[in-house]
From TrEMBL:
Keywords: Cell membrane, Chaperone, Membrane, Transmembrane, Transmembrane helix
InterPro entries the record matches: SecYEG/CpoB_TPR, TPR-like_helical_dom_sf, YfgM
Organism: Rhizobium pisi
Ancillary SecYEG translocon subunit/Cell division coordinator CpoB TPR domain ranges (all copies): 23-202
Name of the protein in its database record: Ancillary SecYEG translocon subunit
Protein family: Belongs to the YfgM family.
GO cellular-component term (any): plasma membrane
Membrane-spanning segments: 31-52
Chief subcellular location: membrane
Length: 227
């Protein structure tokens, strides 16, 4: 179902103005995570496509596309078997792409633990290009928001939440969300404020950060930033 980010922000802000704060995170938290994950996936997809385009091989490419089609049809076990074969026998960029896609299929199957482990393994593999390693770490970090602790998310992605890193906006948002989920409003405020203060933050990410800062202020559990 299509999701309009601006209308979502307006709806939550209406909740804020009407002082109906108690159920806001329960109503909207999952949607916030889903929208942000789509952005992470899009960024990672762009990185992976560039890597694929620079290293394409006709035969392996056909196999990869066939495996993706199986995954899109929810034939997950068949897709995983095809991707495993491509990882072992493929050429150029395809073994790495197969590993990334296989981890995504594991998440699609509902096996978050297996997906997180697979993404973490890719993220630590020095034989994989740095951009792809970072994309894998981000995927693990976002999956850990609902399946792990703040410490686990931090270990996976905090190193990317620094100026100049291409994934810093997504990393900061993930860290802010998992801190909020854990009830650490002071830490959450710091991460969301870092998004707002970064003039290069994408508009939709900055909008969500403003919304989360409003929620934190309304909760009364963390002091407002002094301007």
């Amino acid at each position: 179902m299509a999701f309009n980010d601006d209308s979502f922000i307006r709806e939550v802000n209406e909740e804020l103005r009407s002082d109906q704060m108690k159920g806001v995170w329960r109503r909207f938290g999952r949607y916030i995570i889903v929208v942000a994950i789509l952005i992470v996936v899009g960024t990672a997809g762009k990185v992976l496509y560039q890597y694929w385009d620079d290293n394409r091989s006709s035969s392996a490419g056909d196999q990869f596309l066939a495996a993706m089609k199986l995954a899109d049809e929810n034939k997950n076990d068949e897709a995983l078997a095809a991707l495993d074969k491509l990882e072992k026998e493929g050429h150029g960029a395809y073994p790495v792409l197969a590993r990334m896609r296989a981890a995504t299929v594991q998440a699609q199957k509902g096996d978050a633990a297996a997906a997180i482990a697979a993404f973490n393994e890719i993220g630590k593999d020095n034989g994989v290009p740095a951009a792809v390693r970072d994309a894998a770490k981000m995927r693990a970090g976002w999956l850990l928001i609902e399946n792990g602790s703040y410490e686990q998310v931090s270990a996976a992605i905090e190193e990317m939440a620094v100026p100049g890193n291409a994934f810093r906006h997504s990393a900061r948002e993930a860290l802010g969300l998992v801190a909020y989920k854990a009830g650490n409003m002071t830490q959450a405020r710091q991460w969301f404020q870092s998004i707002v203060d970064d003039t290069d933050s994408p508009r939709n990410v900055a909008n969500r950060a403003h919304m989360m800062l409003d929620l934190i202020t309304a909760s009364g559990k963390a002091p407002a930033a002094q301007g």
